[in-house]
Design goal:
The complex is a heterodimer of chains A (215) and B (170).
Chain A lengths: L4 H14 L5 H17 L5 H8 L5 H22 L12 H18 L5 H6 L4 H19 L1 H8 L8 H4 L4 H18 L8 H6 L14
Chain B lengths: L6 H16 L13 H9 L8 H5 L1 H25 L10 H6 L4 H22 L3 H10 L3 H21 L8
The chains are: A mainly alpha (215), B mainly alpha (170).
């Protein structure tokens, strides 16, 4: 029943090896570092993502906006110097709006996104494993009924970036966009919710007020 | 002392990882983490890419993310065992007990449903937190800014409606 899996996994490695998007080791390394960063900053926890949905924890938006802010400035100069290129996703308006609405609601309930989910499973979370099985079925339904979903997404209105809108001021646009996001990341007040186990590791003065043990 | 990294350090390092992935020294492509799901669905259910146009379409990007995911699983496992020392089998998140209910069945059913729709939503929009937020907005892409705005609005609306406003006793 599962004897097809091994050859197809081998095929996956061959596909990556034959592509010019980093060696298998480089790609694995990128994933490894991603796993360490997500897990070590604790944003794989339910309390961080669902906590953000409830506006009780702000670590996710702070970290996300800071990362995008720095990356947008760095990436502009990296591309300008010829060391990287743009890979922009098309504006398929209906797909972006329906997809974003469904994605946001699911993320609030699941407390994970597709990148943080597996890293959470690597911490022993059974509920996330069940959600990932749901995701595999989601992927199956999307693949089988792709023609239906494709018609829902609507036509592409092009692949535009902010820097292309402000022609002549590309560098300034990237700098301002990045600077605003970095400023936002610091301006959002830090609020935190904790997992029981993480809470136990906090020192007394780091604990949120209501969680302090009475003397 | 909680074994963790502050948000600003996480943000800076994540930006560097993103820039490395984009650069010709890394992978010369954006970072993404939702295409691997239908790719693995295709592998598990043994669907033939010649028969399913979507699988043909994601043959390369799905494989790239599949290998990246294996790295992420290893990195997550390494960190949870050696750095955060937080590895343990668990089903009910603390936050779920505090703001939703104490039912394992409820959590598992909602996990399955939200996991299912998480992937439908991401594939409809053509990306997720990684592909649209990090990689897309990092390129100042209009499509990703639209996705980001809708996602955040829906996330916060659902958070308000789905969970209790007062913490329950746990």
């Amino acid at each position: 029943m599962f004897e097809h899996i091994i050859p197809r996994m081998t095929e996956m490695f061959t596909t990556v090896a034959n592509e010019a998007h980093g060696s298998v080791y480089t790609v694995f390394f990128i994933g490894f570092v991603f796993g360490v960063l997500i897990q070590y900053s604790r944003v794989d926890k339910f309390e961080k993502i669902a906590g953000f949905a409830m506006l009780r924890d702000t670590v996710v938006p702070k970290m996300l906006f800071l990362a995008i802010g720095i990356a947008s400035i760095g990436l502009y100069f990296l591309i300008d110097a010829g060391y990287a290129s743009y890979h922009v996703k098309p504006i398929t308006l209906a797909g972006l709006i329906f997809g974003g609405a469904i994605f946001g609601a699911s993320m609030a309930i699941f407390g994970k996104c597709p990148g943080t989910g597996p890293i959470s499973i690597a911490e022993g979370r059974i509920d996330v494993l069940v959600g990932a099985i749901g995701g595999i079925f989601g992927g199956l339904v999307f693949t089988v009924y792709f023609d239906v979903f494709e018609s829902l997404m609507g036509k592409s209105l092009g692949k535009i970036t902010l820097t292309e809108i402000f022609v002549g001021n590309e560098a300034m646009t990237a700098l301002i966009f990045g600077a605003i996001l970095i400023a936002v990341s610091f301006a959002i007040p830090l609020r935190q919710e904790f997992d029981e186990l993480d809470l136990k590791q906090l020192s007394e003065d780091e604990k949120p007020l209501q969680e302090k043990t009475p003397n | 002392m909680l074994r963790r990294m502050p948000w600003w350090l996480g943000g800076i390092l994540m930006a560097l990882l993103l820039l490395f992935t984009f650069s010709v020294f890394g992978a010369d492509r954006p970072f993404g983490a939702s295409t691997y799901v239908p790719y693995f669905s295709g592998i598990l259910f043994n669907l033939d890419p010649e028969q399913y146009p979507y699988l043909k379409h994601i043959e390369n990007s799905g494989a790239w993310e599949g290998v990246m995911l294996l790295g992420a699983l290893s990195g997550g496992l390494f960190t949870s065992i050696f750095l955060t020392k937080s590895f343990r089998f668990s089903i009910l998140p603390t936050g779920w007990k505090k703001y939703k209910n104490s039912s394992i069945t409820s959590r598992l059913i909602w996990s399955f449903i939200s996991g299912f729709f998480l992937i439908i939503g991401a594939r409809l929009a053509g990306g997720c937190t990684s592909g649209h937020f990090l990689s897309g907005m990092g390129q100042t892409a209009i499509s990703s800014i639209i996705f980001g705005t809708v996602t955040m609005a829906s996330l916060i609306y659902t958070g308000k409606k789905f969970y209790k406003s007062e913490a329950l006793d746990v």
